[in-house]
Amino acid sequence: MNIFKKAYCRVFQFGFRAAMPLLPYKRPIHLDGINSIPDALKTEGINSVLLVTDASIYSLNLTKPLEELLASKGIKVTVYNKTVANPTNINVEEARQLYIDNNCTGLIGFGGGSSMDCAKAVGARIAKPKKTLSQMKGVMKVRCKIPPLFAVPTTAGTGSETTVAAIITDAETRHKYCINSFPLIPKYAVLEAEVTKSLPPHITASTGMDALTHAVEAFIGGSTTKETRHDATEAVGLIFENLYKVYENGSDLEARQKMLYASFLAGNAFTKSYVGYVHAIAHSLGGKYNTPHGVANAVLLPYLLEAYGSKIYKKLHTLAIAAKCADENDTDESAAKKFIEAIKKMQVDFKIGNTIKGIDKNDIPTLAKYADKEGNPLYPVPVLMNAKELEAFYYMVMEK
Predict the structure, then answer these.
(1) Residue 97: CB partners within 8 Å, gap ≥ 6?
(2) Overall pTM > 0.90
């Protein structure tokens, strides 16, 4: 990257970091289990709520215990279960109409990132009924409060229960856009291990490593705070302690609960401190090839950490101690390398591997430009790279 672009990126990042204390970030209220929801709804004065989920989760009856619990407490529940993998504006408008028709005053997003994104977007439309979703895309287009939103994640990885973003796809053009506004951060994050128990091992592993990537990239970046450093470090420790347990025994509810909390902590960390080039590259691969996001992050993470080199040895030493794969007696370099090797071991043990299927070398220059556009200047990465430099990582993970 040339010196002028580097200067621009760092000045942009410095300005954003300086403004951080003035920005209206809010940490979701953490609730352990769905049994906590009725009292919280009553505190909010809500007696009719819209539950947004998808057909798969609904068919597995994962929402049924919550529906029955709320009904027993005299709280009306209306379910929208048509959310698709990449939620569309049609999904949002259908759910919004149900919200209005049933006099709802609160929202529950139940599922993965897609259901939560749909619920967030419904909240945005309720708050700003005269604006279309496309008019809200970008940063800070939604400034007024949305209805109280309860986020119930069914995987321990995405961190959507903590973030400012809702990603929506236009049903006609298939254009995907992001609505980034602070009021979209859920008011409550409800961590219920029981709903993650049925996840297959490969999903458990990839989503867990997604959370690990959130924590690591947030920690090694240049826009951390005392709070985000604490959250990221604790998340790394919990993931290394519990991910193997839940991979080998999905019914270990104590470990499942700890993984949900680790994802919550990592989500809080990256919401404020941002991620880095691992995510930028992973997003480009997901957009082009539908590569599962957690898998892409898991494969890419050690490659980027090695590329950052000595710039992050000291920070990785701290994370290695949290992960219990190094101690204070190790040098920074030794501890950093032990930490990276531990991640590579996860790739093997969880059968994720270190390559990604389907990458066409002819696509790489375009994909790298997308990653460059996403990452620069927003992501406060340890080492700045341009599109040409980012191309190397696609070749590294491409199947030979």
Answers:
(1) none
(2) yes
